[in-house]
Design brief:
Residues 299-352 form the PAC domain. The protein is an alpha+beta fold. The protein is 39% helix and 26% strand.
Length: 614
């Protein structure tokens, strides 16, 4: 079907195609399609009428096609109540229509184009056409321009608006470029021109039809042009602009980016001294005076001050120097101004965050010291000697929720516990305090480790309603000195280690979910004998988990440390053990509780712990 349609169109085209060649064919096809759409007829019929009427009126086919496109190629569809014209009426209207169709709403539309060009890099402009009665392009008028746009007469950016292109490019018509511009306007087909010489440079131009006008982008392609583009690109990347001030003539020059930084229209020229001083903040006057004193001593200026522009505060870094005569008097001042507002605001926000973190860390550390005091020496409990160590995380801001409990119960037994609240900072420290004190209070009513963990679990579930995703682990043990026996239970916690007869192994854990996960969870208990020569180690996961090793490797390393401590000092191993477990985890804090049964011959280990703490 498409092939037959193409052959039919070829038969309808005139035998002699105008000099425009394929572009002319495309323009005629476009005009025919527009006619067919507006007259609601077939394309082939519109094409046939177009050719016949051009012959009847003794007009060139391309001239008729240009008129049709100018009249009908608009963005808005005809109104529903608009009468449907015949092809003949449409062609007559196209030939009678003025060369340029004015648009009463073009002002706001051009303002939108200008806002877009304001943030467009490179040299770009939007121009509207002026035509004679025959529809031939006679001139182009600047309606909008990018800040980097500049012409050979020295005009830049918005200085070009309202100017005629023939003033900057009088050779455009002779060189054939304007004929290409007219073709772009009439056909809508973009075009690339160049490189061609204009003034003292070589240029390339790309032109696109945009609405009823021409969007033009051009670039200089000789060494001077590339250097200028590199400088402009560097200014944009660094958000900086440069300027010069000839102190002899009084002439001042600003780069385009400097106008952007000060949000100033280039048509107004650089700021006067009075205008510049009006932007300064009074609080920065000492900085400006110090910079002026340095300049007077022939030193380079490098100062960051604040200015108020458009109701906002900007931080501007100025680096400036001068060309001086033999006597040291400045002749020309040159330098750069860089907008460092984002950097300064970011540094201020970072400092505020660091201050808050420091305050939070100090508060959490103080809270932790109050609710989790670590005794300087071992604890003497019925039938037990207990040594404790708390290893804070390697990072100062990681105050955690690790805790311990070691106390005598009313029946003469001993309660031992270690727990870990997920997270760091004040929330973790606060939850840790609640769990530790709750365990101590609950131990007045029961000494059963499973029952105590069930109570702590219900408390954690209640706390979790106010602090979502709260989770904690714990291990609780009760030592009966009369039976030389330990009953223990755990809630998602690493298994205790038991050293016996020179060999250390983790205990087999009874089941038990983490605290705060299953509201009605139960915690079975296990029993082990605990006799003279045994060592029990309760700990939190920071002891065995490390970013540089897996938990199995960490556990193996701790087991070796326990074995070595018992081998070196079998009678008093706790001091040796804690000395070997001093290394902190950079990612997590660690709580260690080591216990061993004692007899009346056991010596006080205080001096060993003190020696290892120094």
């Amino acid at each position: 079907m498409s092939r037959a349609y193409a052959e039919a169109l070829n038969r309808l085209r005139p035998a002699v195609v105008p000099a425009n060649g394929e572009a002319g064919r495309q323009l005629i096809d476009r005009a025919a399609a527009l006619l067919a759409g507006r007259a609601r007829c077939r394309v082939a019929e519109a094409h046939r009428h177009l050719l016949r009427m051009a012959a009847d009126r003794r007009r060139e086919v391309l001239e008729v096609a240009h008129g049709v496109i100018r009249l009908l190629d608009v963005s808005e569809a005809p109104a529903a109540n608009e009468p449907v014209l015949t092809v003949t009426q449409l062609v007559d209207a196209a030939l009678a229509a003025p060369a340029t169709v004015p648009d009463p709403d073009i002002g706001p539309w051009i303002a939108t184009v200008q806002r877009i060009l304001d943030v467009t890099p490179g040299m770009c402009g939007f121009l509207t056409a002026e035509r004679d009665e025959s529809g031939r392009l006679t001139d182009l008028v600047w309606q909008a321009a990018s800040p980097d746009a500049r012409t050979s007469d020295g005009r830049r950016g918005t200085q070009l608006i309202g100017e005629r292109a023939s003033r900057q490019s009088p050779d455009g018509e002779v060189s054939g470029r304007w004929a290409i511009y007219q073709d772009v306007l009439d056909t809508g087909c973009p075009a690339a021109i160049g490189p061609f010489r204009h003034g003292d440079g070589m240029y390339r131009v790309r032109a696109h039809r945009l609405g009823q006008g021409l969007l033009v982008q051009w670039a200089r392609h000789d060494n001077a042009g590339r250097e200028s583009e590199r400088v402009a690109g560097t200014e944009r990347l660094g958000n900086l602009g440069w300027g010069e001030w000839d102190l002899v003539t009084g002439d001042i020059y600003w780069s385009n980016q400097l106008y952007r930084i000060y949000e100033r229209d280039p048509r107004l020229g650089p700021l006067s001294r009075e205008e510049s001083e009006a932007l300064n903040l009074p609080d920065d006057e000492p900085l400006r005076q110090a910079a002026l004193a340095a300049f007077e001593n022939a030193e380079r200026i490098d100062v960051t001050t604040r200015v108020r522009i458009g109701g906002r505060i900007k931080h501007l870094r100025t680096v400036a120097d001068a060309v001086r005569d033999a006597a040291g008097l400045p002749l020309r001042l040159y330098g750069i101004v860089q907008d460092v507002t984002e950097r300064e605001n970011g540094a201020r926000r970072l400092a505020e965050v660091e201050r808050r973190l420091a305050d939070e860390h100090e508060l959490a550390a103080s809270l932790q010291r109050i609710i989790l005091p670590i005794p300087e020496g071992p604890l003497e409990l019925p039938g037990l000697k207990v040594a404790l160590r708390y290893l804070p995380a390697g990072q100062e801001n990681l105050v955690g929720g690790d805790w311990y409990q070691a106390s005598q119960l009313r029946d003469g037994s001993v309660l031992l516990a270690v727990g870990d609240v997920a997270g760091h900072g004040i929330p973790a420290a606060t939850t840790m305090a609640q769990l530790r004190h709750a365990l101590r209070a609950l131990s007045v009513t029961t000494g059963d480790p499973g029952a105590l963990l069930a109570h702590l679990n219900r408390l954690t579930c209640d706390l979790e309603r106010d602090s979502p995703e709260l989770a904690a682990t714990a291990v609780v043990a009760r030592f009966d000195p009369a039976r030389q026996e330990i009953v223990w239970a755990q809630a998602g916690h690493p298994p205790p280690l038991l050293s016996r007869s020179g060999r250390t192994e983790p205990l087999t854990c009874p089941s038990g979910p983490m605290l705060g996960v299953v509201e009605d969870a139960t915690y079975p208990t296990a029993r082990i004998g605990f006799h003279a020569g045994d060592v029990l180690l309760l700990y939190t996961d920071g002891l065995v988990e490390h970013r540089r090793r897996g938990p199995d490797d960490g556990l193996a390393q701790v087991i070796r440390a326990v074995d070595d401590a018992v081998r070196v000092s079998p009678e008093q191993p706790l001091a040796q053990l804690l000395a070997r477990l001093r290394q902190t985890n950079p990612d997590d804090d660690t709580c260690i509780l080591a216990a061993r049964p004692v007899t009346g011959e056991t010596r006080d280990l205080r001096r060993y712990l003190t020696a290892n703490a120094n």
